[in-house]
């Protein structure tokens, strides 16, 4: 079965009520998580967390607003690349890097994996690739984080085999099988939070895990259907669809068959 290893690659802080209505004004820590997925001798990464590239791109100019709104704490020694090296892995040991979406805290380390193949939602990339200036900032996308050769090594989730999913994963009934994963990793749309936002169902020795990315910022989000503040809703790709996704996660959680993991689950 597949193996999932979690990494924390920096964190940001924000007041709790922005991430969850009614959570108060205390400042909370939101870790930026990335994951190593392994099936046999094959390995993939899920997102990258923060990096020095983020610090460079937000040092001045318009994108400096990003780090002012959500203060970021990152030690270069904790970059995803350095953590992989500490685990005995190099960049060329990675089959591909899967991007859940294009917010900067998920793609900041792409340039550290400049020889790696990339995987994402084709719809998401087409909606994001031309964004610049304020339009990019509003979508939390920093164009300078994208490597120059990105599109030459890019695969779209939608090009993979579309398959039916186990009844245990209802209400999710179909996904896109990750090539080489031996039927153990399936990518699924989780729309609403950002353009092309996706998750992954992974079959491990303990059962099914869902990497749900930013479909919520706390387990309470899908357990109680209590979403973020109205102000946060304004920055979403589609807040109505976001709540549709949250309700589907609620049904999945209530059935009790799947371990749901979020990228930024904070101390709300």
Features:
268 residues, alpha/beta, Metallo-beta-lactamase, Chain A, seven-stranded mixed sheet, 10 helices, globular
Task: Evaluate the radius of gyration.
Answer: 17 Å
| Apparent shape | globular
Fold-level CATH name: Metallo-beta-lactamase, Chain A
Strand content: 25-35%
Strand order of the largest sheet: 4-1-2-3-5-6-7
Contiguous runs where pLDDT drops below 50 for at least 5 residues: none
Average residue-wise pLDDT: 94
How many helices? The count is 10
In short:
This protein is of the alpha/beta class and 268 residues long.
Can you offer a commentary on this structure?
- It is a single chain.
- This protein has a single domain, classed as Metallo-beta-lactamase, Chain A (4-Layer Sandwich).
- The strands form 2 sheets. The protein has a 7-stranded mixed β-sheet with strand order 4-1-2-3-5-6-7. The protein has a 6-stranded mixed β-sheet with strand order 8-9-10-11-12-13, covered by helices on one side.
- The model has no long low-confidence stretch (mean pLDDT 94).
- The protein is α/β, with parallel strands linked by helices.
- It contains 10 helices and 13 strands.
- It is 25% helix and 26% strand.
- The two termini are 33 Å apart.
């Amino acid at each position: 079965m597949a193996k999932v290893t979690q990494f924390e690659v920096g964190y940001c802080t924000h007041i709790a009520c922005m991430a969850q209505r009614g959570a108060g004004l205390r400042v909370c820590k939101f870790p930026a998580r990335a994951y190593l997925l392994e099936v046999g001798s094959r390995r993939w990464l899920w997102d990258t967390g923060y990096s020095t590239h983020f610090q460079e791109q937000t040092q001045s100019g318009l994108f400096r607003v990003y780090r002012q709104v959500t203060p970021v704490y990152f030690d270069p020694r904790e970059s995803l690349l350095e953590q992989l090296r500490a685990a005995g892995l190099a960049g060329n040991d990675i089959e591909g890097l899967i991007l859940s979406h294009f917010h900067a805290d998920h793609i900041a380390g792409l340039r550290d994996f400049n020889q790696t193949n990339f995987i994402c939602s084709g719809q998401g990339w087409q909606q994001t690739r031309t964004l610049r200036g304020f339009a990019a900032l509003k979508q939390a996308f920093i164009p300078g984080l994208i490597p120059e050769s990105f599109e030459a090594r890019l695969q779209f989730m939608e090009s993979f085999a579309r398959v039916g999913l186990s009844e245990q994963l209802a209400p999710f009934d179909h996904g896109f099988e990750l090539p080489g994963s031996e039927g153990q990793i399936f990518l699924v749309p989780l729309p609403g939070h950002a353009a092309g936002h996706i998750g992954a169902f992974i079959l491990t020795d303990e059962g099914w895990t869902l990497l749900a990315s930013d479909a919520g910022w706390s387990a309470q989000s899908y357990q109680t259907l209590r979403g973020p503040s109205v102000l946060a809703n304004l920055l979403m790709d589609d807040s109505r669809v976001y709540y549709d996704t949250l309700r589907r996660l609620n049904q999945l959680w209530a059935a009790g068959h799947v371990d749901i993991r979020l990228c930024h689950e904070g101390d709300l």
